Amino acid sequence: MLDAFDAVTLARIQFAFTVSFHFIFPSFSIGLASYLMVLEALFLKTGRSVYENLYRYWLKIFAIAFAMGVVSGIVMSYQFGTNWSVFSDRAGPIIGPLMAYEVLTAFFLEAGFLGVMLFGINKVGRGLHFAATCAVAVGTFISAFWILSVNSWMQTPVGYEIAANGQFVPGPSWLAIIFNPSFPYRLLHTVIAAYLTTSLVVGAVGAWHLLRDRNNRGARTMFSMAMWMAALVAPVQILVGDAHGLNTLEHQPAKVMAMEGHYQSHPDGAPLILFGIPNSAEKRVDYAVEVPKLSSLILKHDPNAPLAGLDTIPDDEEPPVGIVFWSFRIMVGLGFAIFGLGLFSLVARACRKMYDWPLLHRLAIVLGPSGFVTVIAGWVTTEVGRQPYTIYRLLRTSESASPLAAPAVAGSLIAFIIVYFAVFGVGVWYILKLMGKTPQRGESPQAVDHGPIRSAGITPAPAVEADRGEGERP
């Protein structure tokens, strides 16, 4: 089946496959690290054991998700050198330092304190352990900061110069590169998405256990916290997404045209196409369900504002409209579903039925995985909408690939598919198994301090001494 694709297409499929797998875990661990920080802070402030138990419950899940995110991220880096060597060569002077900053600041911070966070809960003071948890949470955010800065620069490249050998090199200011025009919007939109993704998972787990035992204290607490997050943050995400869309219209108009399905320009106000089947051959959306002039109202805040269409873009610069059109609608549709779940939870809370409405709990379970689907759909919209460029308007994807034969790329792609489904399938299965266990009091046994371990001259513990007869003493 893979014989029908050329090397560039196979390399794109491989990158899309591996980054989709990878994106699942950071989108969960970024939010979960912050959730653990909040749980430990609440425990230190209130002393309530329910927060400590939930911390221990989710800490085990975080450890596995974090590990799988690190492993899958390493694979991503190698692909820049194997399948995309031309891109690495030309963009390396800019991409390389930014990736190095991510390792030096975020990864070192996470790695330095992760061991204390995971294994020091009964071995160091509570203040130091909380500091370690905060360091890991901050590290996950810093990691997202640098990665999204790299990606945003590829979307809206500024602050560069082109050297004599064709490489993109930094200009006078690194700040212009780091804080490129789309970066603030993309960072805020992605981090909020990670927090919502985590809240939906936590809410689904809480709802699952409430259906089995609505009096479970841990399940009630995690479900309530998750629903507060969905109710308060989902509308903020909608507003941030709208601002991000306006920024995209300014800097990448072809992407917005594909998202909206606007093959033709609309000089007197563009309709919002809710659904339809994009037909790129005929330059139209078949069976379109439209709301007149609503697209102009959303994008220009004027129902009669003109909007350009893909007829103003050369055919060889158009992104794949069908993929972008539908991935955008999946993202937006699920976003409003999450917003609806938050509103439903507010109604239940007002009626004092938060833990007594099975319909709310079942809806939370159904929408539990929706955060992952939403962030992947958003990534597809962003990356496919940038095509046919790797670096927007500067370097085409077809010019970025390594000079490899198709069978070589196909072989590595097949290997990745087999290994990923085997290894990460087991990891996800184990995470689900842990989630299936009911949050209990005392998630981990408390360590008992018997003093320092002696390597020589071992002295029996007092309890053992007391059990021995007088004649048994040395």
From TrEMBL:
It is a multi-pass membrane protein. GO terms for molecular function: electron transfer activity; heme binding; metal ion binding; oxidoreductase activity, acting on diphenols and related substances as donors, oxygen as acceptor. Keywords: Cell membrane, Electron transport, Heme, Iron, Membrane, Metal-binding, Transmembrane, Transmembrane helix, Transport. Signal peptide: none annotated. GO terms for cellular component: cytochrome complex; plasma membrane. It holds the Pfam family Cyt_bd_oxida_I. GO terms for biological process: aerobic electron transport chain. The chain crosses the membrane at residues 20-45, 57-78, 98-121, 128-148, 192-211, 223-240, 323-347, 359-380, 404-432. InterPro entries: Cyt-d_ubiquinol_oxidase_su_1. It comes from the Bacteria. Residues 465-474 have a biased composition (Basic and acidic residues). Its main location: membrane. Residues 443-474 are annotated as: Disordered. It is found in: Cell inner membrane; Cell membrane. Belongs to the cytochrome ubiquinol oxidase subunit 1 family. This is Cytochrome ubiquinol oxidase subunit I. It comes from Rhizorhabdus dicambivorans.
